[in-house]
Amino acid sequence: MPMPRIRVAMQKTAVCIAGTEPVLKIKDQQTGEVATDRETGESLYTVTVMLMEDGRAEIMKITVPQSGLAAGLKPGAVVRPVELFATPWARIFNGQLSDGIAYRAARLELIVAEAAQ
Prior knowledge:
Blueprint: E1 6-7, E2 15-18, E3 23-24, E4 26-28, E5 33-34, E6 44-53, E7 56-65, E8 78-82, E9 85-93, E10 96-104, E11 107-110
């Protein structure tokens, strides 16, 4: 049974800061097979982002297709996830339940501060 995809809306005051460079997502650690988008076949990358909102900070790992990575994306850059979805997941590994939320965005846009006048 497929897991539900939940659209994530952020408040206008939310700030997202990239914490890592994009990292190629590996589907199978043993073979080194790269994770790809099911529809386009495009390679997927993971970017760790710090979401700051309402005096709280959350760390999110967001999966983005290669074409959705903004040129110049680097740690410390302020970004805006576009078409962000959350998918809850759960699995049993070595007899232990693991669960979490997988985040996926169509792209990460760089937010450029306006030049001081």
